[in-house]
Fold this protein.
Amino acid sequence: MLFAMNGTVEGGAREDVTSELEALARYFAESGQVVPGIAIDDAGRARSWWWPLPAARDRAAIAALCADGSPQTQRIVAEQLAMAVDRTVRHRLGEHRVGLTARRSGRRSIEDAWLSSLTASDPWLARSYDIEKLRAFEREITRWVASGAATMGSVRLCLRVREPALAGVDANWSVELLVQDTGEPSLIVAAADVWGGRSPFGPHAVEELLASLGRVARLAPELAMVLDESAPSEIELSTALLMDFLTQRIDTLADAGIAVLLPAWWAQRRRLGLRVKAKSARSGAASVVAGGIGMDAVVAFSFEAALGEHRLTTAELRALTHAVEAKQALVRVRGEWIEVGAGEFAKIVAYAGTTGEATVAEVLRSGMGLDGLAVPDGIEITSVAATGWLGDLLHGALHSVVAPVPTPDRFVGQLRPYQERGVGWLSFLGRLGLGACLADDMGLGKTAQLIATLLSDDAAAGPTLVVCPVSVLGNWQRELARFAPQLRVVAHHGADRFTAHRTKFATRAKRADVVLTTYSLAARDIAELEGVQWTRLVLDEAQQIKNPGTAQTRAVQRLRADKRVAMTGTPVENRLSELWSIMHVLNPGLLGTQRGFRERFAIPIERENDAASAEQLKRITAPFVLRRLKTDKTIIDDLPDKIEVTEHCPLTREQATLYQAVVEELISAAAEAEGINRRGLVLAGLMRLKQVCNHPAHFLRDGSTLSGRSGKLTRAEELVEEIVAAGDKVLCFTQFAEWGNLLAPHWSRRFGTSVGWLHGGVARKKRDAMVAEFQESDGPGIFLISLKAGGTGLNLTAATHVIHLDRWWNPAVEDQATDRAYRIGQRRAVLVHKLVSTGTVEERIDAMITSKRALAERVVGTGEQWITELSTADLRATIALSAEIGDD
C-alpha cells in the first residue's frame, strides 16, 4: 500500500516508536522501496512526497508500531512513517547533490516544479498553479504508480520455477506461465491453454493475462523476453539471471498480484559454512568433576567445512571448487541446490581444519545461532557437533537422557515420577556447574524437588542459600521441617539477625545446611552474604529478579555459588527482558548483552510476533528451563480440573453516575496533559474507575454503609453465601488493601463468621497462623487476601472456590493467586469466579486479555501501561460507560 496524506500530524501511536520509525524509514530509502507522489491541500497548494512502498514482508514491522489495531492509530502511524521516509530520502538526495529537472529555460510547468521539489528541502511547489491542472497531474501520477500495483481480476498470473534436469555450467532453468482462478485458487491451468481457448475461464482471461505479462516485463527485467512471443508459455533463464530474479523480484511481483511458485528447496535452502566440532566428557556422574564445569569451562574444538549439519567430504569440496572456478552461482550438493560465492567459499576452505579452545558459553551460543566463536565476515556457523553432555545440551536431549533420581532415603515422603525426573535434572546441571530454572506450573511441588535435590547431593559439601520473598519464608521453614527434618536450617531474617548469635555470619552459615533469607535482605546484607562460598544458590519466586536494574537483582548476581537454581512458575510475566535477567543470573553470557537480546529477540517477538525468533529463543533456553503444566495429564493425572467463569456484574445507578463523572474528568485532563504527566494522570484515573466498579464507598472513602450499593458486591455475596452454605471454602482476592479493610468487618457481620484478611501489613507469625487455621477442616470458610501479599508461597488447598473481586490485568499474576488453591494436595475441582463490571473499562480489557491469553507463554502484555498512551479519542472509547448500567 502507499501512504499519501495531506496536512500535518499531531501526536502519534506511541511515544517510544520514534527510533523504530526512523530505522524503518532508512530501510525503505536504502532498499529503494519509495515512490514519488504529489498531494494538494485544501488551499490548493501542492507539495511533492516520497512515499514508502512496503513489500509483503514489511507489513508485520509496520503493524508492530501500532499500540492497538484502531483505524485512527493506523492512520497516525502511516502518516508518521510517510513523513519520516520523505525526510530521509530528501536528506540522502541532498547529501549526494542530486537534482531533477525537465527543462532548462522557459516557463516552468507543473511537471518541472514537481521534479525540482522532489530533491529540495522545501517540498512545496514554488508557485501556484491552476487547481484543475494540479488535480489532473495528481491523477496522472496516481495512475502511473498504480500501474505497478496489483489489480485483482477473475484470474491471476502464476510463475512456476522449474530446475534443470542436469546440473552443470550451461544448465538452463525454466519459468512456466500458469493462470489461476482467483475465486477458486486450486484451479490452475497452463498459459498455453488460455492462449488456445482451452481454459475454463473464457475469453476475458486473455486480456487479463496480457496485462499481467506487461507488469512482469516492467517489474522483472530478467523476464522481459516474455513479450517477444505472441503466446508465451515458458521462459528459459541462465543460472545468473535466475539468481537475480529469485533474490530481487519475488516480493515486488507478489505486491503486484503475480504469484511465484518456487521449488520447495528454495525456502529451506542451506548455506555453506563452518561446523564446530567440540569435545566434552561423556554424560554421567562419574565423568563430571566434583567442582562442576560451568559456562566458563574451556573445551577444545575444530572447524569443518559443512552444509548445514553435515560435514563436506573431500570429494564434495573438490566438486565445489570446480563449480566455483566455472562461476556457477547454484550448485547441486547432496541432492539440493545451494548458493556458492567464490569469496565466501575461499574463506570456508581456508578456515576448515583450524583448531582452538573456547568456553562452554561461546560454543553454546555458536550452536544456537548467536554470536559465539569468531569466524570470517560473511561466513556463518551452520551447526555444532559435540560429544558428551555438551552434545546433549545442544541437541535438546538433556531432559530425556538425565536419569531420574529415586526418592532419597532421608526424604520424608514419596516423590511423584515427574518430580524424580526433576531432581535428576537439577542434580545433573548442578554437577556441571550450569544454572537451572525450575519453571514447573504452580502447585507441582518445586520446593519438594529442590529439597530432595539437596538430600541426593552431598550436603556436607557446604551450605545452600535460599533467597525468597518474606511472604514465603515461613513456608520454606515448614517444608524443610516436613520433608528433611535432619537438615540444619538458619533463617537470616529480622532485626536481630546479627545480634542473636555472637559468632560471625560466615561461621554460622558454614555450620548450617540451609540458610534462608529474603530479597530485600540480600541487597541490604550483601557484604555478609557474598563473603560465603555457597554450594548452591536457590532463588525462589525468581520473578523477583526480573528487573536487572534493581538493587536485589544486582545483589544476587554478586553472590558466589557453585550451583544456581531459579524457581518460578512465571519466568515471563510482562516482558522477555525478565527472562534475560533470570538467565543472566543463572548462566551469565548465555543470552548475550541486554541490548543485543532486545534487538535479537525481544523486539521481533513482542512487537512483530516473529515465530522463528520465538522458536529459536525457546531452543536456546530449553536445556536450562524445565517447565511442566498441571493440565498435562502425562505429568499428573490425579489433579482435578480448574473451571474459570467470568461473572458480569451490572453497575448500580449510583456507581454509573460516579463512573461517568470520573470518565469526563479524566478525558478533560488527559486532553491537556503531555508526556509522563499524562501517563500518570491516566493511570490514576484508571484506578479510580476500578474503585467505582468495586463500590462507591471504596471510591469515596467516606465510611458509608456497603449493602445494596454495588452490583459487584451483591454478586460476590451471593457466591460466598452459596459456597459457605455448601460447606466449602473460598479465597477472595483484591488488589486494593483499603477495599479489604472495608470488606473484612462487613462480611464478618454479614455471614456471622470470622473472615481472615491477609495483606502486606500482617506479620509473618500471624500470617502463618491464619493459613494454618484456614486449612483446618473446622476453620473459617472465607479468606480475604491482598493480591500482591498472597499471590505467591501459600498452600490453601482447603479452598475449592476462588473469587477475583477486582481484575488484575496481568493474567500471570492472577493465575498465581488462583494457584494458591489449585495445586498438589487439591482433591476437588476448583471453580474460579472473575468479577467484571458490565459496560465499563473492566469488560473491555477482560475481552482483550482473553484474546491474548493464548500468547501468554510466549509474551505476556505490558500490564496497564498501554492504556496510558492511548490518544484521547481512543481513551474515551475504551473507558466510556456503555448503556448497560443496570438497576438499583
Remarks:
- The first strand starts at residue 34 and ends at 40.
